[in-house]
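In the current project phase, we have settled on a layout for protein records. A sample record is reproduced below.
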Amino acid sequence: MGRRSIHTHEELRTLILEAAEAIIVEHGLKGLSARDIAKRISYSPGTIYNVFQNLDDVILHVEARVLDALDVRLASVSPEGTVVDHLRRLAAAYLAFTHEHRRLWNLLFEHYMPIGFDLPAWYQAKLEGPMARVEVAMRPLFPNDDIGCKRASRVLWAGVHGITSLSTADKLSVMTTEAAALLVDDLVSNYLAGLHANR
């Protein structure tokens, strides 16, 4: 049953996103509905659409919160030591984050916006945040090559993400008995060794 609003627009926005996150953590994306969000916050489903365009918009903002949390985690990684040391710590932090927030992290790859929908610039910026951390870490290897640094960063992180995705989906054992952390560490070390040799 809906009730008369006792929250500001921003308070309602936060309540809706927190409720959506909780439902996704408990039941996955398939368990999310406007009705269930409304029930959790004791408002009518129509209230959600006064704050967000639709359920996809709610999910997009939940994803943004996940990306923000990941960026905060990566920002806390110490840059001390060599480039390899820094990137290994970043990769380890990334792997740990995805395992701590499996359903929320997998949401980014399970949820698809409607065909023809262009992701807003603010969301694109959220996606770029964590990648920028990787690029900064790799910058000493590419002092005068922004394009090369960007490409190498994305190649490396695509590999790290592949291992992480298999691991969070409990599919890594199909390929190997090695632990994901060891594979990620090997990937970073060997990829950077190859870059160094080629340069």
Summary: The chain has nine helices and no strands. The mean pLDDT is 92. The longest helix spans residues 146-168.
